[in-house]
């Protein structure tokens, strides 16, 4: 303690310590390196959204068969992400035989969301370091950053540093993932654009122009935004029946569009459950198809949580709500 009535000046050692403490206590944004915007990505994202909006306009001038086909292609696009990149490859929450894995890889190529290995690496880092600087789409950086802003700038160094520690050897050893990585662009161009343009034209005489913009661009941009809502909206709004201490929430509207992937509080609490939800097939078309594939022997070793474990966790850390509120699941 300094003597009374004498002005106290900190020693240089103390000043240094205070500075270190200030840096340690500084909010993450104070330590964040300046954002480097990738303008080619900004231009590309702007273009695809304009093409998607034009596709939405053309939707009203299409054959009704084209509407049904757009829905089918959207479903396959979504399924390649939910059942493929997400539940199978990122989380290994079930196992699948080669024919079904090949089908999932083709569906995943419709989605144009980076190859399976890159998608899964970002997703594993997202789970392990959720809402920190090492989370590629850290929702603490705001809605826009979590939604698609993270695809428009260079990644935070922590994402790369922590991501390098994640074991990806299982995916590199899967020949289906390796094949997709090697032929990624020809696969995407064929599955995401050529097929949905040519099939409606060949089978029911839809114009190539309409099919390209509606089944191609509109379907793609809609699916991208629904996927991104899992990172933005479902990390911000909804109930937290399983863990009230984390940001991911049960968001009914996201669940509906993302064919069963909006039970995000459950999913971050129990990421190994292949249903990504407590309620099986309820608003969860992805689980329904995975179970059908199990029935015909293409899927096995599906992991789920016991009711006791889920119930216990809800009691300990849940917010007291029962689920998604808007639409109660069957008892
Ligand atoms: C897209 C992905 O849309 C969407 C993902 C959404 C995830 C949702 C999750 C929700 C779960 C549920 C699913 C619901 C689904 C519902 C469906 C309904 C329809 N770890 O990336 P680079 C290193 S994609 C370790 O260029 P930059 C590594 O060395 C849209 N290391 O970083 C790497 O080299 P390599 C289409 C990492 O320069 C090097 O850095 N795609 C990691 O900072 C360079 O990597 C686009 O628009 C890591 N995690 O650039 C492309 N990351 O790979 C956009 C990087 O050789 N991306 N490294 O090992 C880009 O242009 C760039 O990545 C960038 C960053 C500009 C964003
Ligand atoms: Zn996940
Ligand atoms: Zn998440």
Beta-strand portion reads: under 5%
Overall pLDDT, averaged?
91
Helix content: 55-70%
Secondary-structure class = mainly alpha
What sort of overall outline do the alpha carbons produce when their principal axes are compared? Answer: globular
Order of helices and strands: HHHHEHHHHHHHHHHHEH
Number of helical elements: 16
Q: Catalogue the ligands.
A: stearoyl-coenzyme A, zinc ion
Molecular structure report:
- The chain is mainly α.
- The chain has one domain (35-317).
- It has 16 helices and 2 strands.
- It has a two-stranded antiparallel sheet.
- Helix 4 crosses helix 5, helix 4 (64-90) packs parallel to helix 12 and helix 5 (98-111) packs across helix 11.
- The structure holds stearoyl-coenzyme A and zinc ion (2 copies).
- Stearoyl-coenzyme A (ST9) binds next to helix 4, helix 6, helix 8 and helix 12.
Q: What is the compact description of this entry?
A:
The protein is mostly helical and 331 residues long. It is 59% helix and 1% strand.
How would you summarize the topology of this molecule?
Layout: H1 12-25, H2 28-31, H3 39-59, H4 64-90, E1 95-96, H5 98-111, H6 116-128, H7 143-147, H8 157-163, H9 169-172, H10 175-182, H11 184-204, H12 208-231, H13 252-257, H14 264-269, H15 285-295, E2 299-300, H16 307-317
Antiparallel strand pairs: 1-2
Helix pairs in contact: 3-12, 4-5, 4-6, 4-11, 4-12, 5-11, 11-12
Bound molecules: stearoyl-coenzyme A and zinc ion (ZN) (2 copies).
One zinc ion (ZN) binds next to helix 4 and helix 6.
